[in-house]
Amino acid sequence: MNFITYNYRKLLHLFFILALVCSANPARAQRLHIIVGGPNFRPFPIAAPKIASVGKSSSTREAAELTEIIQQDVDLARSLELVPPSSYLVATNDTWQNPRYQNWVNVGASALIRGIVEKVGKNIKVSLKLYDVISQREILNKVYQDKPTKTAYISHQFIDAVIMLLTGEEGIYSSKIAYIKNTRKAKALYNCDADGRNPKRITDSDVLNLLPAWDPTGRFILFTSYLKGNPDLYRFDRSNNSMQVISSQRGLNTGAKVSPDGKHIALTLSIDGNTEIYVMDTNGKNLRRLTDSWGQDVSPTWSPDGRRIAFVSSRSGNPHLYIMNADGSEVRRLTFQGNYNQEPNWSPRAGGQIVFTARDERLKFDIFIVHPETGEITRLTQDDGDNESPSFSPDGHQIVFISTRAPGSSRKLMIMDADGKNQRRVSFDLAEYEMPAWGPRLGYQ
Predict the structure, then answer these.
(1) CA 400, CA 381: separation in Å to the nearest integer?
(2) Is the per-residue pLDDT at 95 higher than 80?
(3) I need a surface site. Which of 46, 121, 163, 290 has the fewest CB within 10 A?
(4) What band does 299 get if pLDDT is binned at 50, 70 and 90?
(5) Contact 314/280 with Cβ under 8 angstroms?
(6) Intra-chain end-to-end CA distance of the chain, in Å
(7) Is 235 within 8 Å of 220 (Cβ atoms)?
(8) pLDDT band at 92 (very low <50, low <70, confident <90, very high)
(9) Distance of CA 94 to the CA centre of its chain
(10) In the predicted model, is pLDDT for residue 357 greater than 60?
(11) Distance in angstroms (rounded) separating the CA atoms of residues 417 and 349
């Protein structure tokens, strides 16, 4: 956020506070209920100063980690907005249990996160509070006790609790993102937290693996692997770290997506040489062919109610998005603009739109969103390198994608709001990232 934008928002905030005071209506001083993405939506401004280390044993390192992660979580969440820490006023009589509310109102905050951390044996005890600085009251109080290495999960739990309190919706910080990362010899399957922390390699680093996808429970990650030479479909079981082949048809076994009810898998096969869309049960049995065209039919994605499937087809000459019923009937073309549309991903929200990648007239790849009923298209990225492989968050409010924007030109993980705002990088090493898939909420581990 630049200085001018921040001060403009600060002026709006002060105007809002003045309106509350002048109304003299007690009901107006109650906490706002945020409807994320609604016509009057704006992120809720929260200040998050340093977490204090208390007690006889030092927990300075954990306090610094908690401060950094909480500030980043507030900054990344679509429903929240971090008031810049550089603007905070220093007051000696402002404590974590007795904040000087007017100081925080003056910097544009509507709420304030304060907390302390202390050592308790081999664990840490973290006490966190959320204050409504307008009504001048505490509205959330949480205490966590865990290992010192769990500062990220403590921070994620608290910010998800804040989001639930303010919006009535679950947050995204108990979810994970699966992705493909280049290794020295091949491409391996990884996953990480929703903010890019805690990356973990799942498959061997010397095998080519592609196109991960989650099942609705989060127990399984499906992906294509050349482990035995042919591009077969595998399922990784997170409960016991095992892998199982579920489709090894002749040719391609790729682009698998599990239906919202968890009963079926839509995927791309090339059994007879041409790529077509098929559906099978999640155990790999009861295979049914859904498409039959001379063009290439690939990349299926389920509608939120599981009744329809969007996919990419070149049957009109160039790759475009199409929609059909889940039994393959009533196929219709959805996109008519451009000449290279690919990688559709349907929002999990009821009535949600379909995000996809398209190549524009300058041969640059960017991300767009299309309404499945009207076909109206909105551009989400532009003039920032190539942007590809979008995947919706479990609440449908955000999108993870790959971008080659500076610094450097390698592909990195990025997250943006579903309207294209607040584009943030969440991977910072030198490796190449590809094909992210945002999974369901898994709980805090």
Answers:
(1) 12
(2) yes
(3) 121
(4) very high
(5) no
(6) 32
(7) yes
(8) confident
(9) 35
(10) yes
(11) 14
